[in-house]
Amino acid sequence: MLVAPGLYQLSLGFYSRKLPKLKVYVNSEVIFTIFPPCQEINKENQATEHKNVITARHSAGNIAGLTFTDFIALPARARLSVGYDSETLGEGFFQLKKL
Length: 99
Known about the structure:
Elements: E1 6-16, E2 21-26, E3 29-34, E4 39-41, E5 47-49, E6 66-74, E7 80-85, E8 90-98
């Protein structure tokens, strides 16, 4: 729980065998849903990339994960939490910096 209201920089990243879907909550309400990069086929049968990122497999394992940085204005006594949804366990980080 954050006591001081104001602007914050939020950074997070998660690494697992299959990239997760993440949700960031403020006071139990979703403010962001973060999906892994994906491709869709448009009308011309061409692949279009979301977020301009494609994560490839590497022989050393998962060296690239799903990362996110944004700036948010939080109210006083805001309770921040992150939801992690993936088929596999992973590891990650969550960083919040007051500006």
